[in-house]
Amino acid sequence: MGRGLGLVYGGGCVGLMGIVADAVLEGGGEVIGVIPRSLADREVAHEGLTELLVVDTMFERKQQMMERADAFVSLPGGVGTLDELFEVWTWVQLGQLAKPSGLLDVDGFYDGLVGFLDGLVERRFLRPEHRGLLIREEDPELLLDRLAGWEPPTIGKWLDR
Q1: What are the extents of the domains in the chain?
Q2: Which of 11, 101, 145, 147 fits a disulfide with 35 by CB distance 3.0 to 4.6 angstroms?
Q3: Residue 136: in which H helix or E strand, if any?
């Protein structure tokens, strides 16, 4: 059953996100890609999207994606995925962004990261309420349900401590 959701992503036609973009398009969803000119020039830009924004820098890419998306889901990925995940999470923690983010933890892909984050809480480098801002689910439907029901935190009380 479709949810009528669109996709905002990095704009490439390769890899896991290229497959996700194609699936959303095939399902009739809107897909917005945001890609830096340097990557678009290497012919990795997805030409069949609803909208393709070509920007100058990776910073502009992330900024456009954060502005246009309503929520953020990190699929299994590499350093770029982690960079985007942590930047969004940091902005929410600081009260600069009020949008949910989550990990789609396919086959325990994020187990090591989640263990590390929980260790940060145990060692008091990360507050439990900040750790709770990052949603983790193995089932995509459950993850989408939790993202849809997310309420922005009251940041002021955290900063007053």
Answers
A1: 1-69, 71-150
A2: 11
A3: strand 134-137
Query: What's the residue count for the chain?
Result: 161
Same fold, 1-69 and 71-150: yes
Q: Which two tokens stand for residue 38?
A: 């340097």
Angle, vertex CA 125, rays to CA 132 and CA 102, nearest 5: 30
Q: What is the pLDDT along the chain (161 residues), one digit of tens a residue?
A: 467 889 999 999 988 999 999 999 999 999 999 999 999 988 799 999 999 999 999 999 999 999 999 999 999 999 999 999 999 999 999 889 999 999 999 999 999 999 999 999 999 999 999 999 999 999 999 999 999 999 987 765 555 44
Q: Which CATH number does the domain 1-69 belong to among 3.10.180.10, 3.10.129.10, 3.40.50.450, 3.40.630.30?
A: 3.40.50.450
Rounded to 10 deg, the angle between the 58-68 and 79-93 helix axes is 60
Listed residue (74, 54, 50, 73) closest to 64, CA to CA: 54
Contacts of 9 (CB under 8 A, 6+ apart): 17, 20, 21, 31, 32, 33, 34, 65
